[in-house]
Amino acid sequence: MQISKNKTVKLNILAVLSAIVAVISFIPLKTMGLEITFSMVPIAVGAILYGPMAGAILGGVFGVVSFLQCFGYSSFGAMLLGESAFYTFLVCVPTRILAGLITGVVSSAMCKGNKAVNELRFVVCSFIAPLLNTVFFMSTLVALFYNGETIQYFVNLLGAANPFIFIILFVGVNGLVEIIAGFVVAYPITRGVYHGLRNYF
Fold first, then answer.
1. What is the CATH classification number for the domain harbouring 182?
2. How many angstroms separate the CA atoms of 69 and 91, rounded?
3. Domain membership of residue 62 as a residue range
4. Residue 31 lies in a domain
5. What is the sign, positive or negative, of the torsion defined by CA atoms of 180, 46, 201, 109?
6. CA atoms within 13 A of residue 9's CA, in its CB half-sphere
7. Total structural domains in the chain?
8. Run of H or E including 35
9. Residue 54 near residue 14, CB atoms below 8 Å
10. Residues 6 or more apart whose Cβ sits within 8 Å of residue 13
């Protein structure tokens, strides 16, 4: 009976997190010229609480939503889509699945420790989720589109001498702020949910 109840709670939490991922993908925080998305926050929460499969599923939701946004909602995504729909899919979807999956793997590897290790798990995974998202997205984008018209436009605009410099200039402060902001939000939420529902894990 308890196992069934735990499973129901898990499914409900994952459903809520999936809905949050989908919604906040459309409402980035715009401040000081930066556009910050918190889409990796619910993914980090799910991956930390329920492991690799949950992280992969939630990452997949984010990836599919971001891919669908390329059909008119995102001008940058639409430009990539015009060059290659398949490559755009690879940039949007598998990268997010992998980020969620690896965050879940790290969380699972650390979850059998003592209380101090458990707290460290919240910190580490809350940080690596948005970091992995940025690394995987940008590396795949450069690998598949660097010589294409869209990325070369930005390469010339930014005056980037090579792909590495392009990534630094393109992501820049925005990416760094997004990673830090994601961590700052994900950590207390994960910790609060875990301790509030610890009897169901």
1. 1.10.1760.20
2. 13
3. 2-25+36-200
4. no
5. negative
6. 16
7. 1
8. strand 34-36
9. yes
10. 46, 49, 50, 193, 197
